[in-house]
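Protocol step 4 of 5: obtain the predicted structure for the target chain.
Materials: sequence only (see below). No template structures provided, no constraints applied. The aim of this step is simply to have a reference model before the mutagenesis design in step 5. Sequence pasted as it appears in the construct record:
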Amino acid sequence: MINTKKAPILFPVEIAEHQDRKWKAFCNVMEASNLQIPESPTVICDLKTAFLFSDFIFNNLTRKTDFFIELFENNCLYSAYLSDTYAKSFSHILQDASEEKQITEITSHFRCREMIRIAFRDLTGYADLSETMSDLSALADACIDGVFSKLYDQFAARYGIPKNQSGKDQNIVVVGLGKLGANELNFSSDVDLMFAFPEDGSTSGKHESISNHEFFLLLSRAFLKVFAGSSSASFIFRVDLRLRPFGENGPLIMSFNSLEEYYEAQGREWERYALIKARVVAGDKIAGYHLLKRLNPFIYRRYLDYNTFESLREMKQSIDFEIQRKGFKGNIKLGTGGIREIEFFGQAFQLIRGGVSPLLQEPAILKVLNILVEEKHISLSTRDELTDAYLFLRHTEHRLQEFDDRQTHSLPTEETKLLLLSCSLGFSDADRFLHQLHSHMKNVHYHFTQILSSTDKEQPASEKMRELSGIWESLFESKDREDILLSAGFQKPSEILKQIASLQNDTATRSLSREGRRKLDQLIPRIIEITGRSEQPDLSFFRIAELIKTIEQRTNYLSLLIENPSALKQLVSLSIASPWIIKFLTQHPVLLDELLDTRILYSPPDRKQLASELDKRLESIPSDDLELQIEQLCIFKQINTLRVATADLSANYPLMRVSDHLSDIAELILTQVLNLSYHYIGRKYGYPSCSPDIKNDRQGFAVIAYGKLGGIELGYGSDLDIVFLHGAAPGKTLGGKSQSIDNNQFYTRLGQRIIHILTTHTRAGRLYEIDMRLRPSGSSGPLVSHINSFREYQADNAWTWEHQALVRARFICGDPAISNLFKVIRKDTLMKKRDPSELLTEIRDMREKIRKSQEISQPDKFHLKQGKGGIIDIEFIVQYLILANAYQHSELVKWSDNVRQLEALAQAGILENNTSLLLKQAYLTFRSSVHHLHLQDQPPVVDQKDLLLIGSKVAAIWETYFMP
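Step 4 output (structure tokens):
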């Protein structure tokens, strides 16, 4: 119940009397000064309200009536400012100042006048919290930037302009931290600043030249002198520089290189925490942007930073200890459930996840809370409770400080002042205000205590954990260790001890830092305990121990498993279900974070959700940062492949949904890769013109999928069989930064760029293996084919096996016009009438050639793909029947996947329904087995007896067509 509206409040008698006394005193001053008070009832009501709740406003308007004149003449009190109003206004009034004393007086007057305006609009409800914080921050920005600019000109006139070694002009960079950096400044706040300059060098003065460092040091000291004011009445803003490197004992200003070196070598977690809200507020803002970009890897790690947990926990404990030691009772910022705890809540997520979720690299806490909901890290109710509390506490903070422009966060102990505060917030008495305040602070503290607590409340018995720690640390005799492992659930304790010894003696383990070893000592006993209680304890421990060997050097991942017992349990379950998943996690340990949320892990998002997720990953990455773009594409692919695999293992996902989902992932990635590549090549060389039947505002390019992707049957480890087509017109590109190139050459370079992105190895892995051999003329043909050349090739030069491949081809992404042309070519090609005998012979010979090259040497085994009656035989049967009959049945070429092609063959009467159903069931059964064998890290081979009956039936159908 915070009053930000215009409805009048009925004040208690003692408050109303206090208001009347102030109003009469103001009227007397105005009368003595021959000044007229506006007759508007609204203005009078607003002035009475402002005077009642702010001695700061009352005292300044009664002592300095020029403030009143300035504010009312320009209608400032009843108008919202534009974002640059303060900067323009201050720059104008400061332009004639020539001495530091003048600068101080002008700035102090400007600051006081505008603070009156801001407090007035807040207290009377014309400004909401967002406007108030934004105005306070913009006012501080204007004062800081204006004073520095004025002083810079004065020092440059004396010493010359600072220049780097190349002769480029240099200016100071002022970084705002804390609430100023986040544009969340409170009414009587300090401003947290850090000073820097780009490069070493010297000034260009003819008579007196000094080093850049000395110039900017003198400039910074002069600024601090101005802001301190000549008296307590003329101070501007209190400046806090303790967040700079080395704190209050550190140098006042440093070069960019020195700053970067400091943070790389000595930066601590609390400094990362402070830099989250960093923003350039004055000086050379372009250089400042580049400085913050250089510091970004220090602030936000490019992986889920669970190592930060311990440091954050220490910070939290420091907060708790400070509250216990100093009390802070009634302190709405530092007390239990105060503003600081809300900010800590948001920034903890930012430090841990900001590197892999760029959206979290946001200084404003309310925006951070919204992003945490969107990213499903917190619930809506948590967001709402923290947001409501933040708004309430910040309003309360402002009303406390607006009373006499004093930096305080403590509630008044005097009853009348507490009642006055309560009334300023819309409450009729103090009890109601305190009840709501305590309710909000209770909610905040609850969420604050939960932020670093374990997600799993179950804690193993301390005695048992001491025993398991003794196993890992070899504190017991071998026999005792085996007995403990037996009682823990292991079947072959001697083998487990060998695996433990192997892990202890592994090179990665032996080279761990002290901190890394400490974390491993914490984690391994927990792994022993949880795997011992699993369905297959020995197998699970072996697989996870091998995983640990590959990830232990990145102690961040050890921290993740220590801090999240539920994730460790999930890992144990998956280790039993699939060795492939463990191998996948070994190759891509960034995916361990996915184990934290089983709701998403076992319910993969649909295509629309996938597209949105991918857009979010890429939207904040600079267009020229290819490495990070590929890295985010890889992480997207790996995360969603893991989700499909876990859903597949849990039996929640049928085969065709698995393939659909894996195909969706590939298609979305190809679409993004094409767009990134097209605009990269276009910006560099200009854009090509296309044939008349292709609109020039489109790409004139298409990616065509063959094979498993074309058939919407992608598996976990499938390559992508793709072909590139274009529709370039003769001529050269237009509008690029570099020299224009031939249109055909543009598309060749576009194809090369796409392949480069898809196959490049990054720290996050590689996107896909690419097979381009199905393009016209195979490996010896051009990388990208013109659509007309593709048409001619298919009509005149393609082999039968290439038409077989075309049966499973489809458009994936690119220009719709190329897509339409491709569909016509595919349809015309497949519907071509063929000699039945020649077709049968060529397809049979091709199948036998493949079979011999893939000879299976295990007579008692059935190869699901290559065996007689296997997947390839079914595909060849379908392709033969389509090529033989499509000239009479156009519906046969509508689909590119085997299942719907079999259904179409049955509907056309070419296959009997029973035969179509048998082939369809066999195909799905075999493919499902291949999927699950892949997850078990096994080849697509099964015992002959398991699928003998269905395979023999498929083989019989094959012989009906190909062995008459």
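Step 4 remarks: The first strand starts at residue 162 and ends at 164. The CA atoms of residues 906 and 914 lie 9 Å apart.
Proceed to step 5.
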